[in-house]
């Protein structure tokens, strides 16, 4: 009985720490996105917009129709790296956020 209660308490504590860890990592990701965005010049924003569109086309492509969208995404990613945009998860999240905001503006 005592072992079961201890195991349950330990499970609750571990679940809480996991949730807190995910919250901290999500918060730090938002901070990193803000840092990256603050350092962009106009040209980098333009390249990032192209990258975001290529990423969206890549993610939602019809997999039966060849590799054209894959090549376009890789070319956009390479162009982004060449102009100083870091190749990290925060940039992908920023690109996804830009697409969502653009789509919301079109709808609303």
Note down, in words, how this protein is organized:
The protein has 108 residues and is mostly helical. It has one domain (2-107). It is built from 4 helices and no strands. The model has no long low-confidence stretch (mean pLDDT 80).
Summarize this structure as a short list of keywords or feature phrases.
elongated; 108 residues; 4 helices; 82% helix; mainly alpha
Quick summary:
It is elongated, with a radius of gyration of 20 Å. The chain is built from four helices and no strands.
Oligomer: single chain
Distance between the termini: 57 Å
Which parts are unreliable, with pLDDT below 50 for 5 consecutive residues or more? Answer: none
What's the main sheet like?
none
Radius of gyration: 20 Å
SSE arrangement, N to C:
HHHH
Give a count of the beta strands, DSSP E runs of length 2 or more. Answer: 0
Strand content: under 5%
Number of DSSP helical runs = 4
Backbone shape: elongated
Helix residue percentage: over 70%
User: Which structural class matches the secondary elements?
Assistant: mainly alpha
What number of structural domains do the residues give?
A: 1
Mean of residue pLDDT?
80
SSE order and pairing:
Elements lengths: L1 H37 L3 H18 L8 H15 L6 H19 L1
Helix pairs in contact: 1-4, 2-3, 2-4
